[in-house]
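Section 5.1 Outputs to date
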Amino acid sequence: MKSEQKKTSGLFKPSAMWQLHIDKDYKILKESVATNDLNKFMFFLSNFGNWKDYLGIENNTLIKEYSKNQGMTGNIDLACIAVGAASEYPQCFPDIDRQYEKTRIIDSSLNTFSDQLNILENKYFFPAGGTYIIPGKFSSLNDYVAQPVFEQLESTVISSDSCKNIYYLEGGNSVEKIDGKWLLSGAHFSPLHGGSGVAPDAFSSQNKR
């Protein structure tokens, strides 16, 4: 990972076992440097002490197991995670390539979201914060808001190792645990989907998964 290391004699390079450890357990850090992905780099640093893989420094895997069960019994059932941008960037910056930045931010945030699901190992998920639109004469800026659509979040959830379902709570919906199962309920009316806060078949399709 260090540029000078590539030029030095093999006598001064890490042992084969240590290099394998770096390649395997520090994989996300190496990828972030190789792709210049600051979000992935910061995600690794922010979770360094609670990483799922053994990093060779202290007992970080034990810390993860200990912290997972603090204040609760068993594993995480339901997690609420924010994905995508929640600010005026990039849509309010006309001097940049806003479409490129929108795509970059969404792709990066979905990768981070996938990592978060695999670390938390939660069974169910619903998006944090909700979505928004820009009305009136500036409505064209909506084309550059860097938030993934529901289908992109759903695809990431489906590809995760442990998360079984995603709940769409836009429009005042709620999710509750009934007879040991998490079920979607509590819709109210809004201008979306012809009057309903969710698509007509949203409840049945999400509750059956």
